[in-house]
Design brief:
about 270 residues; alpha/beta; eight-stranded mixed β-sheet; 12 helices; about 55% helix; elongated; binds NADPH dihydro-nicotinamide-adenine-dinucleotide phosphate; binds (2S)-3,4-dihydro-2H-pyrrole-2-carboxylic acid
């Protein structure tokens, strides 16, 4: 069977994308080859997804006919680029898609000269098809490459095209954002426990509150401020809670978190 998708790095994000792409039938397991250094992880990926697994990134690259997805840490990017340098050819090349935080199109195009590359920033809700991925296209891509990337990432959620100057900000917001939301859910549940709720019920209330609020904002397309006003009765419970959040600098903390993450993304690309 021809390998269509090569995945270099089958960690958290690589697996999130892999699981959904296979589940949706975008790629058959036999059409996928993953490279991973650790034998335990290799066995896990082979057994869980029935995909081909290899330790040699060059084999994964040369065998892949459609897409090579780079999903390693940005810190190992140059080592991988050096490894692959010998097998690069402009004759038949897969589309290279990098999801590495901070690594720029110009760095990708220096590593893969004259090859079609796309810089993408997905997020972990991709695992359940509720991700959002920002794409920016390299100079050697064409409409077919763009369509292919859209097909891959629309299988795991929404897709937006952005100019590269926005990619660090996207990383700070939607790339890292699931961690901030998870922290908020955990804290809401802790608050519920502090107020006397059993842990299981507190977790359920916290998760569903965040999920339902997001769905309401999305489906009714209302401004978050308006929704806040709808919940806030005069002299009621919510305004007492909001006053406390404002005292603790809640909004500012989130703004600064997104800015710090965007800055770190910029640093990782230097
Ligand atoms: N996690 C997230 O929410 C998101 C991550 N990203 C980006 O995705 C990339 C991967 O992140 P994440 O999945 O969290 O990280 P992980 O560490 O979970 O995954 C990276 C994987 O690559 C493997 N690896 C290390 N060296 C090599 C190598 N030389 N060849 C092949 N595989 C190798 C690692 O193995 P080992 O552990 O043994 O070193 C690991 O399994 C990062 O660049 C990150 O910026 C983008 C969006 C969201
Ligand atoms: O924390 C990180 O660096 C990666 C990039 C976006 C989400 N996780």
């Amino acid at each position: 069977m021809t390998i269509k998708l090569g995945l270099i790095g089958g960690g958290v994000m690589g697996e999130a994308l892999l699981s959904r792409l296979i589940d949706r039938g975008i790629y058959q397991p036999s059409e996928v080859m993953v490279s991973e250094p650790q034998p335990t992880r290799q066995n896990y990926l082979r057994q869980t997804y029935n995909v081909n697994v290899n330790t040699d990134n060059c084999v994964v690259f040369t065998e892949s006919r459609e897409v090579v997805l780079l999903a390693v840490k940005p810190q190992v990017f140059s080592a991988i680029a050096q490894e692959l340098a010998d097998v690069l050819t402009t004759k038949i090349s897969p589309l290279v898609i990098s999801i590495l935080a901070g690594v720029s199109l110009s760095q990708l195009e220096s590593a893969f000269p004259e090859l079609p590359v796309i810089r993408a920033m997905p997020n972990t809700p991709a695992t359940v098809g509720e991700g959002i991925t920002a794409l920016c296209l390299g100079a050697y891509t064409n409409g077919k490459h763009h369509k292919l990337a859209q097909q891959v990432f629309s299988a795991v959620g929404q897709v937006v095209d952005v100019s590269e100057m926005l990619m660090d900000a996207v990383t700070g917001l939607s790339g890292s954002g699931p961690a901030y939301v998870a922290l908020m859910v955990e804290s809401l549940a802790d608050g519920g426990v502090a107020a006397g709720l059993p842990r299981g019920l507190a977790n359920q209330l916290a998760v569903q509150t965040v999920l339902g609020t997001a769905k309401l904002l999305q489906e009714h397309k209302i401004h978050p401020g308006e929704l806040k006003d709808r919940v806030t009765s005069p002299g009621g419970t919510t305004i007492a809670g909001i006053a406390q959040l404002e005292r603790a600098g809640f909004r500012s903390a989130l703004i600064e978190a997104v800015k710090a993450s965007a800055l770190r993304s910029q640093e990782l690309g230097q």
